[in-house]
Specification:
Elements: E1 4-9, E2 15-19, H1 20-26, E3 28-31, H2 38-49, E4 54-59, H3 67-71, E5 74-77, H4 82-95, E6 99-102, H5 108-123, E7 133-137, H6 153-169, E8 175-181, H7 189-192, E9 197-200, H8 206-216, H9 220-223, E10 233-238, E11 242-250, H10 274-279, H11 300-308, H12 326-341, H13 351-364, H14 374-386, H15 391-394, H16 396-405, H17 410-425, H18 432-439, H19 444-456, E12 461-464, E13 470-474, E14 479-480, H20 496-499
Parallel strand pairs: 3-8, 3-9, 4-6, 4-7, 5-6, 7-8
Antiparallel strand pairs: 1-2, 1-11, 9-10, 10-11, 12-13, 13-14
Helix pairs in contact: 4-5, 4-11, 5-6, 12-13, 12-14, 14-17, 16-17, 18-19
């Protein structure tokens, strides 16, 4: 699908259009001295393409956080650990939410490390989530410097490696780099050379004009025009823009940056006793009001929860159907969960994919009220996979099993609850193949490791009978499974018949 992004006007008042699909495949480099209009250009591109493609903005000055109010971008404060930033980046690709990584307030060394961790999380996302993303990096010379500076070598290598991956290898992973820099001479050549589209703004230094002219295929005399460009005017070239150098004027934007260019303001009238005001003896030291401490950064779990939350820009209209009570609504949700798990491939699908399928099924069934959050869905999924019904669900030992499972990670809760339900029912011990399917893998070795892990945690005890059958005893529940062959085949209905 071809989408033309309106960037402004070209010669003879013609619209200057940018082919978004071509841009995703060929990347973009924006160059211009301070005050040439680079940030205005990036804002125009982001605003016009927001309805069509997911966006991630690396913002060293906090200028693009205002996109959140108009276009729903999630602002990620970079004042957190590198591991947290990598986790958030992975969730961003999984849930396809546009974000702004706010690096304002960090030292340059910290900005480089944070950007490297964030870009690394985008780059290392699972193949199932390689959707197209427009990755905009403002002041790219900070993150991909051409030479060593005042920052540590480790931070520079991490940042430069992440930027190189973005521009050189990111296309196959759906990452389309859009980088902007004040000076081409300060930007690493292997990063700049990967862009096929260029927007060159006002430039004064000879070395920068020479590199810009070389990228655009101009001679030295033609490069002189870069000095005469006005603010907001750029020379465009590339398959997504124009096959020949084309002067364009960037159009207006809907949002504004928090910082503005300095404006002249008239000076106040000088007082007659200016000298006495300046040099008068100070009777007592002036007590300055302390500046309020900046608010702490949002917890990582809150940002992940917001990223995973389904988008609902408009309030849902009042339903024409009669309202139902909470018990009936929970019954409808449980029914949807059982339908979801009836799919034989559900055990091998990721939790994110199952959650999206769950939301669609809830809308089809017209389940009223706000849908369960991702964390709540994971808990319901683990309990539903256990399949505890009838007398077992009402047994106090089962409630104890639910409480014990809360100490485990989300991916292990379902396996433990199935083992607990099997022990309460006195059914044969599940085989390694059954445990592997419940965990979502085909590896029997991993299934045996799970049983060993539960035993090391003190949740169960493994013993073998004389015939080689495996028995799992759960001391906290006061029950154990019947002997079962660990090398036996997978049985999806194992334990349910005994429970009934």
């Amino acid at each position: 699908m071809q989408v033309a992004i309106d960037m402004g006007t070209a010669q003879q008042a013609r619209p200057a259009e940018l082919d978004l699909e071509e841009l995703l495949a060929t990347r973009l480099l924006v160059q211009g001295n301070s005050g040439s209009g680079k940030s205005h250009l990036l804002r125009r591109l982001l605003e016009q393409s927001a309805p069509w493609v997911q966006q991630c903005v690396i913002d060293p000055e906090g200028d693009f956080v205002t996109l959140a109010d108009k276009f729903g971008h999630v602002v990620v404060d970079a004042a957190r650990t590198e591991h947290e930033l990598t986790r958030i980046a992975g969730r961003i690709r999984e849930h396809r939410v546009s974000v702004v990584l706010d690096l304002e307030g960090l030292e340059v060394d910290q900005q480089m490390r944070a950007a490297a961790a964030f870009l690394g999380g985008l780059f290392d996302a699972d193949r199932d989530f390689w959707y197209p993303v427009l990755v905009v990096v403002d002041e790219a010379q900070l993150f991909a410097p051409a030479a060593a500076g005042d920052v540590s070598d480790e931070a520079r290598k991490l940042s430069l490696g992440a930027m190189t991956n973005l521009m050189c290898r990111g296309r196959k992973r759906g990452l389309a780099g859009v980088i902007a820099t004040q000076r081409l001479a300060k930007l690493a050549k292997n990063v700049a050379a990967e862009a096929s589209n260029f927007l060159m703004g006002r430039t004064f230094l000879d070395i920068d004009m020479a590199r810009a002219a070389d990228l655009l295929g101009m001679d030295r005399r033609q490069a002189e025009q870069f000095r005469d460009l006005e603010r907001g005017r750029f020379i465009a070239l590339g398959p997504a823009l124009s096959r020949r150098p084309l002067p364009i004027t960037i159009g207006p934007v809907e949002t504004a940056a928090r910082s503005t260019s300095p404006k002249l303001t008239p000076l106040p009238e000088a007082p007659e006793d200016a000298e006495s005001l300046l040099f008068a003896p100070i009777a007592e030291p002036v007590r300055r009001t302390p500046r309020p401490a900046p608010p702490p950064p949002r917890p990582t779990d809150d940002i992940i929860e917001e990223v995973a939350r389904p988008q609902s820009p408009e309030p849902a209209p009042s339903s024409l159907f009669p309202e139902i009570d909470a018990a009936e609504r929970n019954a409808m949700i449980e029914e949807v969960m059982h339908q979801l798990l009836d799919d034989p491939d559900s055990g091998f699908r990721t939790t994110a994919v199952l959650y999206q399928d769950f939301l669609v099924r809830c809308r089809i069934r017209r389940v009223p009220g706000e849908a369960p959050s991702l964390s709540s869905f994971k808990r319901k999924l683990a309990i539903a996979r256990a399949g505890a019904e009838g007398t077992i669900a009402e047994d106090p030992a089962w409630q104890q099993a639910l409480k014990l499972s809360e100490s485990l990670t989300d991916d292990l809760q379902g396996v433990f609850l199935v083992l607990a339900r099997t022990a309460l029912a006195g059914a044969p011990c599940p085989s390694d193949a059954t445990i592997a399917r419940i965990y979502g893998t085909h590896s029997l070795t991993r299934a045996r490791r799970l049983v060993t892990y539960f035993e090391e945690r003190g949740l169960l005890v493994v013993r073998m009978d004389l015939r080689g059958g495996r028995i799992l005893a759960l001391p906290d529940l006061g029950c154990e499974t019947a002997p079962g062959d660990p090398a036996g085949p997978d049985s999806e209905d194992m334990g349910r018949a005994a429970a009934e």
